[in-house]
Design brief:
Elements lengths: L6 H18 L3 E4 L2 H8 L14 E5 L5 E4 L4 H5 L7 E3 L4 H12 L4 E3 L6 H7 L3 E3 L3 H7 L3 H20 L10 H14 L4 E2 L4 E4 L20 E7 L1 E3 L2 E2 L2 E7 L5 H20 L6 H14 L11 E3 L6 E5 L12 E4 L2 E4 L3 E4 L2 E6 L2 E4 L3
Parallel strand pairs: 1-5, 3-4, 5-6
Antiparallel strand pairs: 1-2, 2-3, 7-10, 8-9, 9-12, 10-11, 13-14, 15-18, 16-17, 18-19
Helix pairs in contact: 4-5, 9-10
Length: about 350
Amino acid sequence: MLAVVNTRIYEERREKLRALLRGRGLDALLVSHAANRFYLSGFELHDGQCNESSGRLLITAHGKDWLCTDARFFDAARRIWDEERIFIYKGDAFAQIGALLKDSTRGVTGFEAKSVCCHGAQRLGLRLLAADGLVESLRMIKEPGEIAALERSCSLNHKLMKYAPSLLSPGCSEADLAWSIERFFRENGAAELAFPTIAAKGKNAALPHHTPSGRTLLDRECPVLIDCGARLDWYCSDQTRTFWLGKTPTPEFTRTLELVREAQKEAIRGIRPGMSGMEIYALAFAFFERHGVERAFTHSLGHGIGLETHEEPSLHPHNSEPVPPGTVFTVEPGLYYPEWGGVRWEYMLVMEEDGARILAS
């Protein structure tokens, strides 16, 4: 896929990265992670599969950058990149990129160790230093245009959640429900799903990342947890709601839903710029602890979101890093009980100077 944003945005992002490279004493950074590659160039947001790559960027501190790819992507690359700075490799991509590094850099080259296998790093050779997180640190603080795109994507998700109750019926399988959600997203402008839809009925709602089943579930009175997201204008949405299928929710479900939603409200009210991920997590955990249900809260409170569904910052109990203004993240407390199911409720928020604002509420 090709970006439609003015290429000046990508040039400005690369200049910010150059400043980080100079600060780390790096002569260059080999960018291999697909979302980072797209963020810096507009080229190919997705790689085909885990053992394939559409290409890599070589970003140098002195400003002479390369887009490295194979012949299949040459036409796509030259639409968004100076043709004279496109490096086409054949066969052993790592060895050929290594030769390019030798010709283009003189000092230490950083590379994204999390995105390059050991074999690839060995084939690259030269003086390499793991430098993960440099591009992600730029991506975490969203530009105004990114926040606007995230708000549009989130608005579509809110629209889906208003539509979702009409999809619930005793004879509908979880897989049928997931397909209806995907079709709704695509028919209303989404390019794709942000992640595979979670649709969980009954006791399956106690599984935070349940895979929808194709079996017809005839439960007439049970919880239904839906966690879904779409990609619109390149940016992801992520929302969870838990509904009751039927007319008579159990006291356990009603009470759990009340606790989850109140924990979320209390957390959102308390969020301030500069708080760490663990401090934000503690806002919801403390609420659950006061009500004696903290053991049923089994995951982090939320995560950053943007070009990918899971980005920095992470709102988990061990993250001491501050969450600055401009970050977009989820707040999604949940309580889970294997005996009957569970409840999760999720909003996307943007950190502003005076606190967190719910996107497209």
